[in-house]
Design a protein that fits this description.
Layout (H helix, E strand, L loop, with lengths): L1 H8 L2 H4 L6 H6 L32 E3 L20 H12 L1 E5 L7 E3 L10 E7 L2 E6 L4 E4 L17 E6 L1 H8 L3 H22 L2 E6 L2 H15 L2 E11 L23 H7 L16 H12 L7 E6 L8 E6 L2 E7 L3 H7 L1 E2 L2 E2 L8 E8 H8 L3 H22 L3 E4 L5 H7 L7 E10 L8 E3 L3
Antiparallel strand pairs: 1-6, 2-3, 2-18, 4-5, 4-7, 5-6, 7-9, 8-9, 10-11, 10-15, 11-12, 13-14, 15-17, 16-17
Helix pairs in contact: 4-6, 5-6, 6-12, 9-12
The structure holds flavin mononucleotide.
Length: 448
């Protein structure tokens, strides 16, 4: 496996970030994961120097302290140029929210989940004066020199776009040619995160996947930083003063999304201990209602969510599919056998499915997307599904539970057992929801 990875890895990432074989080698199998991953050692042939994550990016433009609560101003339009709004948007979208003091652990945790906390994504504000990179560890912005337009001051103008790029090298050092998959998944989660936090502040955003527009936005600097453009959000202005409501229909339960307590929910979000072995606890009707509403607010609609429910105070065990803001039952009975057949890593069951409350599978229409967009279908579909995956993580956190993204699943088995359209639909995310047991780790909240 190692020799093969070596052979195919060298140049292809730079030339074609998402080669067509990625579907077979990173989604339908895990062939592209180097054998060294188990030991946490660098993947062979991956010697690119990484940026020191603690190093400031350059002369910083300090950001205001983020607020403890996220809410739109009740009587004035929300303005992203307002320093308090900008600080809140960046911090709660991708900021450093928790510090884990466990010796030998992964110390820094941000607003979105990340495979082994590598955080390959970067968030950049595009303003009329240039491109400004968010530096979460110092809670500041830094001008990307290659982007400077006109005047030679680093003054921040009014942000018009937020761009997400990805630095594959740090993730590839561990994961080899599997990195593009993880980076695409995480970019989608970050896009969903910005969209969610913006809505909670009363900001209207339009999420974009169009490759040409994306490349235009990144062209001035992405070549010099070695990053891959992944997605963007156009900042369209304010919603009605005081409003955060997503435009979808209201849930009959009266629950709306994003929730009013989003800031504290994000501060408490976590993925559980190293091996996901939760306590058996049910998901409640309120969680299901939040899930139904949250999935309806995902910026792109070309995904489906299948939920295998084991423990719920309101739903019978079985297989549910999210459609038009509701979860409809398509199969009855305890899904444990299905979960253990789907959720495998090289012949072993990936986590303790006997005590999870439910597991979500996000599926996309791969066949038609590849026919239409070719290799770029990979980026586009992972943006969609990633945005949905982050919503699921936040819904779980709101109800005191953990959602654990786990790529240890058999995509072909999932396709068959979930009744997906063969050759067309593919599962790209597996998320298990459960009540994480207390662990040895000790996380402190981070505020700037
Ligand atoms: C795209 C992606 C893939 C992941 N894959 C796995 C996995 O295969 N196995 C696993 O145990 N955890 C996986 N995780 C969970 C991460 O390890 C977890 O998010 C990370 O430790 C950060 O923890 P936090 O979310 O509590 O901050 C994945 C996370 C992401 C975002």
């Amino acid at each position: 496996m190692t020799g093969r990875t070596d052979k195919i890895s060298r140049s292809r990432v730079a030339e074609a970030p998402f080669p067509p074989e990625l579907w077979a080698e990173a989604v339908y199998s895990r062939r592209s994961i180097p054998a060294t991953l188990a030991a946490g050692q660098p993947a062979p042939g991956r010697t690119a120097t990484e940026l020191d994550p603690l190093r400031p990016l350059g002369p910083g433009i300090p950001l205001a302290s983020p607020p403890l609560h996220l809410a739109p101003s009740p009587d004035a339009p929300t303005d992203v140029s307002d320093p308090a709004v900008l600080a809140a948007l960046l911090h709660y979208s991708y900021g450093l929210l928790q510090h884990d003091l466990t010796p030998g652990g992964w110390p820094l945790h941000r607003a979105v989940a990340s495979a082994r906390c590598r955080y390959p994504s970067e968030l950049t504000l595009i303003t009329p004066t240039g491109a400004f990179r968010y530096d979460p560890l110092h809670h500041q912005l830094a001008l990307l020199p290659a982007s400077m337009r006109g005047s030679h001051t680093a003054e921040l103008g009014a942000p018009r776009f937020i761009v997400i790029t990805s630095r594959f090298a740090g993730t590839a050092r561990l994961y080899g040619d599997y990195a593009p998959r993880l980076c695409a998944q995480e970019a989608g989660m970050l896009l969903g995160s910005v969209h969610l936090v913006a809505a909670s502040l009363g900001l209207r955003t339009r999420a974009g996947r169009d490759l040409e527009s994306l490349n235009d936005l990144c062209a001035p600097w992405s070549a010099s930083t070695g990053e891959h453009p992944m997605g963007y959000l156009e900042l369209e202005g304010s919603m009605k003063p005081g409003s955060t409501a997503a435009e979808g229909p209201r849930h009959p339960s009266g629950r709306t999304w994003p929730p009013g307590d989003l800031a504290s929910v994000l501060r408490s979000r976590h993925s559980g201990a190293a091996i996901f072995d939760p306590e058996p606890a049910p998901v409640t009707g309120e969680l299901i209602a939040d899930l139904e509403t949250a999935l309806d607010t995902v910026p792109f609609g070309d995904f489906s969510c299948h939920l295998l429910v084991q423990r719920s105070s309101d739903l019978a065990p079985g297989h549910y599919v999210h459609n038009d803001g509701r979860l409809g039952q398509v199969g009855a009975g305890d899904p444990l056998a299905l979960l253990e057949r789907i959720g495998q890593t090289e012949g072993r069951v990936s986590m303790n499915f006997r005590s999870t409350a439910c597991v979500a599978y996000l599926a996309v229409r791969r066949g038609s997307a590849v026919a239409r967009y070719g290799a770029d279908a990979f980026r586009r579909l992972h943006l969609t599904a990633g945005a949905a995956a982050h919503q699921i993580c936040v819904v779980a956190a709101r109800h005191g539970l953990s959602a654990r993204i786990h790529n240890g699943y058999e995509a072909a088995t999932a396709e068959r057992l979930l009744g997906l359209v063969p050759g067309e639909e593919t599962v790209v995310f597996q998320l298990a929801i459960g009540a994480a047991r207390p662990s040895a780790s000790f996380r402190l909240p981070v505020m700037f």
